[in-house]
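Subject: mismatched residue count in predicted assembly?

I count 452 residues in my input, but I want to confirm that the predicted structure covers every chain. Input:
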Amino acid sequence: MDNEVRVIEIKKSVFAANEKEADELRDANKKKGTFLLNLMASPGAGKTTTLTQVINKLKNELKIAVMEADIDSDVDAIKIKEKTGVESIQLHTGGMCHLDAEMTKQGLAGLEGKDIDLVILENVGNLVCPAEFDTGASKNIMILSVPEGHDKPLKYPLMFSICDLVIINKIDVLPYFDFDLKLCEEYVKMRNPNATIIPISAKTGEGVDKVCEWLRNQVKLWKGSK
Amino acid sequence: MDNEVRVIEIKKSVFAANEKEADELRDANKKKGTFLLNLMASPGAGKTTTLTQVINKLKNELKIAVMEADIDSDVDAIKIKEKTGVESIQLHTGGMCHLDAEMTKQGLAGLEGKDIDLVILENVGNLVCPAEFDTGASKNIMILSVPEGHDKPLKYPLMFSICDLVIINKIDVLPYFDFDLKLCEEYVKMRNPNATIIPISAKTGEGVDKVCEWLRNQVKLWKGSK
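Triage response: the counts match. Full output below for your records.
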């Protein structure tokens, strides 16, 4: 398999009106029938491993592509391409700590004409800045991992309040950490009563089917409402 | 014990010349004999737990204070005060993803006249933005935790290149994660050949004495070169 991945050097948006840009991008994607998923998390929460699992379960029913945002390296895009075989683009943010709608649009231009059902944007590993910029995604999701602690919704309120789905990853190591799953779910609901919460282990595969089911439904709804 | 902590609402710096501001703050701290340590890490890497351990081992020989930067909550400042008894100030960044020198100075003003030997600034949990702004600290350190993965120096180059000490925390859970300690150390050295690397478990206490020794020496050097 050819493991070379394309790298797109992203330039900082010159549009002050990010929200307008984001809405336009959403509209354009809806017309094309492309669902754009914005995936956020801390460094090391398991974004790439979770994506690999989810993509391998969904790739026969949906045409999927991945955009990996990273400050500098290409390790994630290469990993996704190696482990799933789907189209994978690396977006270099040039030191930027987040993506905005214009930067996302630059990335999507690299997938033009490919008729993708589901584009997954793996945002920069950061619980602060990515939450502040609408990327134009159809839905926002985030992964909180058990080793990070159950208090994170208290400390990063905006991130939890804007996510439609909160995945709690690495539940296979629950016995080794002081992580209160029930309390964490309460904190998430405090920030966002409508959030769906799915505990998983991307390592063992536990719970991944539920994430796939959620995503499958979201893509169906999005395409249906075209 | 009184567990109320002071909260200072930090305003965004109006100084464009952050570097100049940072140098001035360092000079002022040197004159006062105050060592300012800037501690950075991802959310959940164990900053507060590590601090608690280190402070309890050093508080009889050094007068210590802590400034906890957080977007919104007070949980860390309260935890530090409860578990160590040292002066602990909460800095609210108002959504900002990092601290700069002016913001740090606003925090230090809350400790004026207290003759502190060592002020520890726990920066916002974020591997990107805090690395870009000189806080005026005497030294920068960061904590990478085992569950985050050994590839992080590849993905967050600036953070690793500006830190004098890299603590690798949560080594008690090494058996449950695919974390290559030797490879991680190589990656850190690639970013910063002069970095000191100390593996610890803030939970069991393993390695914490080495961090204390490093810190004790740094404070001594700083005060000696006044």
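Chain B touches chain A at residues 42-44, 70-73, 75-76, 95, 97, 124-129, 132, 145-149, 151-152, 154-158, 170, 172-173, 176-177 (CB under 8 Å). Marking this ticket as 'not a bug'.
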